[in-house]
Write the structure tokens for this entry.
Amino acid sequence: MPKAIRIYENGGPEVLRWEDVDVPQPGPGEVLLRHTAVGLNYADVNLRNGTFYIHTKLPLPAILGNEGVGVVEGLGSSVGNVKVGDRAAYVSPSGMSPPGSYSELRVIDADQLVKIPQDISDRQAAAAFLKGLTAWCIVRRIFPVRPGHTILIHAAAGGVASFLSQWSKHLGATVVGTVGSTEKAEAARAAGCDHTILYREVDFVREVNRLFPDGVSAVFDGVGKDTFLPSLQCLDPFGTLVNFGNASGAPPPLDIRLLGARGAQMVTRLGMGFFFKDRRIQAKAAEEVFDLMSKGVLRARIERTYPLCEAAQAHRDLEGRRTIGSVVLIP
Ligand SMILES: NC(=O)c1ccc[n+]([C@@H]2O[C@H](COP(=O)([O-])OP(=O)(O)OC[C@H]3O[C@@H](n4cnc5c(N)ncnc54)[C@H](OP(=O)(O)O)[C@@H]3O)[C@@H](O)[C@H]2O)c1
């Protein structure tokens, strides 16, 4: 019987249970996918502990996991985009489609799948797909990065942030990254950061303003509570703060008058999945991510893999700020 990591209640890593699951036959438009590699994401932690949604809750019990890579093992009727034996990746963004990638085998809508180019391994794809697509939304759509921009990226050695750093640098920006340790500073520099700031030891606002007295063009912030408001003091008068996550907790409420205190700053928050409701846009973004990986511009740094059945330990390490780059779970 196939196995999966399922939760019956919200809570700490101990609520993750490795157990047998029933997997139905694929229906019309669906495929049976055998997972080979599963990307770990901070959203998995937020879904597990119940802090992801604002207005609704994840129906329980639920199998966690917001992205997966696998091999197509069976087809329902009317599936035209993949065939048995194809390797494919998908994201199932929280809030848009149910999770479920923490599983050996699952049924999924065929139109969620994107085929993986031959030169990219399953593990690399799992390390890069959701994180690379999120970076695409930010550097290509929300704040199109250009030469001359200066960008501050928080937790720059993290999964999504490593892609943001590499991509921003590739597009010609000067990049400064905050990091939680000297080891992470090294990783952030390897990912393209021109400057790093140990923000647990040093006041990052003062340091950014020392490096860039006019302020930076944009801040990319997946940390949230601890960094959100101070980041406004790092921006140039017309700069953009892109918040995309809350690893340290939910960002506090914003008094919009603050945005006019020095000019006309902008603040935005993204939900990655909504960019890809139109699957053609997802296909285009995925093509760009995979193409830049093939060219060596974007690298998925996989420091750690864990057997899928040990997902609880992976969660502990991610929450404990002990991971660098991407973590991949192996079914
Ligand atoms: N909006 C979207 O559609 C979307 C899509 C993907 C990801 N995200 C968000 O992007 C962020 C990054 O995700 P990721 O999967 O790539 O994770 P990650 O960045 O690899 O890991 C989180 C990092 O956040 C930093 N951090 C700061 N304060 C923390 C705290 N109190 N507890 C734990 N970590 C803390 C840590 O780095 P340091 O040690 O360097 O501080 C930690 O390594 C998350 O907030 C995630 O929810 C959003």
